[in-house]
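Notes from hallway chat w/ T.B., transcribed later so I don't forget. T.B. wanted the structure written out for a chain they're using in a teaching module, and asked if we could keep both sequence and structure tokens in one place. Agreed to drop them here.
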Amino acid sequence: MGYILGISAYYHDSAACLLKDAEIIAAAQEERFSRIKNDESFPTEAIKFCLKFANISLAEVDHVVFYEKPFLKFERLLETYVHFAPRGLKSFLKAMPIWLKDKLFIKKKIARALNSIDPKCEKSHTILFTDHHHAHAASAFYPSPFEKAVVLTVDGVGEWATTTVSIGNSAQLTLKKEINFPNSIGLLYSAFTYYLGFKVNSDEYKVMGLASYGQPVYKQLIYDHLIDVKADGSFLLNMNYFNYCTGLKMTNKKFDKLFGHPVRGNDEEILAFHKDLASSIQRVTEEIMIKLTQSLYREFAIENLCLAGGVALNCIINSSIRKHSGFKNIWVQPAAGDAGGALGAAYSVYNTHLSGIRNSESQTDGMKQSLLGPSYTQNEVITALRVYGLNYEKVEGEFYHREIAAYLAEGKIIAYFKGRTEFGPRALGCRSILADPRKSEMKAILNAKIKFRESFRPFAPAILEEFASLYFGEGPKNRYMLFTENYLGDQTGRQALDAVLIPGAVHVDGTARVQAVSKVHHPDFHQLITAFYNLTECPAVINTSLNVMNEPMASSPEDAICCFLNTEIDILAIEGLLVNKKKIGL
């Protein structure tokens, strides 16, 4: 059936994905090339990368598909403004020229952008469109290992839908029910993100991290005034407190009055109030999702659940669903946000439009460890190092991992660059900053001197799959950092089992967002952690993304070098080469 190019763009986190039949060939976010975090622009460079990786021209692509339907989105916008009129006139006047000029006639805009990449493709493609939430659902189900599953998508809003339930069965994906705008769990959570002084559609994970420092003392207030939740988990928001339908802000003065504080400025101190509020909205969202998934399990009696949409990146909620919903198996799309929409759009065309054949196997990783982006040869890296005047040491084979392990054991912080760039928000051991998790002070060092970010932000452990149950209990562990696990070592340093403690990779609430590293699916990273274990008897490392706050994750050698030079990272380990700041006098 040939090649299918999926595209997401023009809202946030634009991306491109290339399928060949049912196989993901390449996928990348535009931010990794533009260096603009959550870049919303047309993914020109991401598309060029996908084509280059497949060694094809754009004219050779059989189908191009966009991840949502702009006319339906415009319909929702107009109907919303009419419903709330005369409120929202200022927002309406600001939005309309953009829609009429750029967003409404997206088909022509996409065609022009594709033509600029390859003039030969101008008339050779019919550009297809799929529903936003169908793209999310497709991204969750088709790469999953399940033949049959309930598929739940939850985010801010697509065209109209904010929450959808579908049933995936072999190659079929059938919508069963949906909740529509303005009722949205994602927008409710984003409203609190805004109120707490963080950036909407970008910093929701900060609210999740902050929640562990507070108590859910405002939970009942939220239930009493902001949201009405039914027994089956469906819900209605009280729009008297929100401004996102008609305004340029998420919340209004009535919201401020309810909680007794104004919106926090992003440079203002985080108070106990903010921690408690984060804890409260996290708990409310968690309880709604549990109620919703329990209802779905009772209704459909299917053992498997797939999740996508921005809310599916909340690993605390995912863990609660796994524990309380009744579903036996849960699979979450690692690029669950809008970037994954490009992937889902392509899958949707293959399975729905082209009647593709799906082969689901429990041991197959359809996402290829999410290592779907660009890679670079050692010679390309050497060229980049020479541009910056950096000397390097070339280390062969297993000695490379041993030397990195020795640096980690000394307390050094490593920028680790190897193979293909991760697709999605998580660093999984190819564009990572690594550190020794045995040192509890490592969290503060990494936040202050490397990431330049808030002190409350936690770090995750990447642990050898075969040791994961020793540290985090029995049961399956996730390879994509999409669930939290309870750490068996307590705050006093005692541990239920005889093993080296890893306090540096554990959050204040005694949990960790675990990445179980598989020898089969991620052999290089497994070798590195094994070398560290052989030296220290510690089978885990701290793993965080190779970037500083408010910058995209590194993709190219130049990105990694800049992060290395502009932070207090000690060692750059990049494609078999080691650059040591002390040895080169930096």
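Follow-up for T.B.: Residues 140-335 form a domain with the Nucleotidyltransferase; domain 5 fold (CATH 3.30.420.40). Might be a good example for the class.
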